[in-house]
Amino acid sequence: MERTLILLKPDAVQRRLIGPILERFERKGLKVVGMKLMQISDELAATHYGDHKGKPFYDGLVSFMTSAPVVAMALEGNKAISVCRKLMGATFGCDAEAGTIRGDFGISNGFNLVHGSDSPEAAERELGLFFNEGEILEYGLIDDSWNAAE
Ligand code: DAT
Ligand code: MG
Q: 50-99: per-residue pLDDT in tens?
């Protein structure tokens, strides 16, 4: 089982797409183990996207991410990190395949609706940035036992 950090970015919230996007992850079989609406600080956005510091789009990215609330989610499942990246699609909406979140809901490069951790190391770091102790819950779902029998 893996956990990953998913953010529904300000464009997703502003466009009232929280429900349709969350549905993509839920119906695939991912389990929501943490979720909150957050107005993030410049500092948190800068730390989260620290690897991109110095790139031409960085300042715009930080101001976009702090422009309105985001929904932060911790999702759990079998290969959750790569499964979520596949559901999201390629970075730019114009390149993302139809059937993916970015491919179905947008065409922009930067306003691409959703963030997902890209490695186990990133997931651990990013979950720690967005969730405090006790905000990620452990609970059972009936199909956990079915998965265990696979
Ligand atoms: P991803 O979000 O697919 O992991 P990334 O980590 O390379 O992509 O970039 C982080 C975000 O920065 C991305 O979701 C959108 C924005 N971004 C990346 N490259 C960009 C570019 N060339 N122009 C505008 N925004 C860009
Ligand atoms: Mg990335």
A: 999 999 999 999 999 999 999 999 999 999 999 999 999 999 999 999 99
Could you tell me which of 71, 77, 69, 67 has the C-alpha nearest to residue 30?
Answer: 77
Q: Pairing between strand 2-8 and 31-38?
A: unpaired
Query: Any idea where the domains of the chain sit in the sequence?
Result: 2-131
Question: β-pairing, 2-8 with 114-116?
Answer: antiparallel
Sheet holding 70-77, edge to edge: 31-38, 70-77, 2-8, 114-116
**Which numbered atom of ligand 1 lies nearest the CA of 118?**
4
pTM: 0.97
Q: Which atom of ligand 1 is nearest to the CA of 112?
A: 14
Q: What is the largest CA-CA distance in the chain?
A: 49
Query: Among 3.30.70.141, 3.40.50.140, 3.20.20.220, 3.40.50.1820, what is the CATH number of 2-131?
Result: 3.30.70.141
* Phi-psi domain of 97 (left: phi exceeds 0; alpha: psi -120 through 50; beta: other): beta
